[in-house]
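Need tokens for this chain, all 207 residues.
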Amino acid sequence: GEKSYSGDLRFDLDFSRDIHDGELLSQMQLYDGVMVFGDSVWNVAASQVAMHGEELTVNHFKINKGDAFVHLNGVLGKEDGKRMSADVNNISLRRLSMFVPGMQRANLFGMLSGNCVISDYQPGQDNYFEIGLQLDNWGIGKDTLGVLTLNSIWDIESQNLILRGENQYDRNIPFSLYATYSPESDSLDMEVQLQTVRINKLNEYFG
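Here are the structure tokens for all 207 residues:
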């Protein structure tokens, strides 16, 4: 049968001007509710979202079904020291593909968990990402490719963002990657190492 996409959400929305700087201030109070995605019912927790000029504040937005959830919290803006975090747990790639244009055609599956943070490391630097994500039992079509992990750290000495990732299948690591991103030059260097194990499966989709 047809899948249902509906919900029961209540919120208050307010628009005003900040009395101190004259910037437009938009504030939304979201109340407890539910959303239906296909045949799945998700709970939406009460939270607040505000836009002050170019600064976005999200105060503990969370949507969950059992132990599966997406949680957003923090502030993004031009001032240094702002940070926004996104935590995910047991989110299905198939369900996620409902909201990402073109993703359904890739026919991906797997369960995504982890954390992503966008923030300023210190005054004068551009925003950057910190990630720690794991994709369990992921694959393409009917082929399971294993467990994919992605992690990043900020290297103080080089002032670069370092990204490391690897895919593990049983006891083998068919591919891994190492990348560095320099905010100063806006450049990305990436090295990918491939092993012959299971690469034939990857070639069917990316070859």
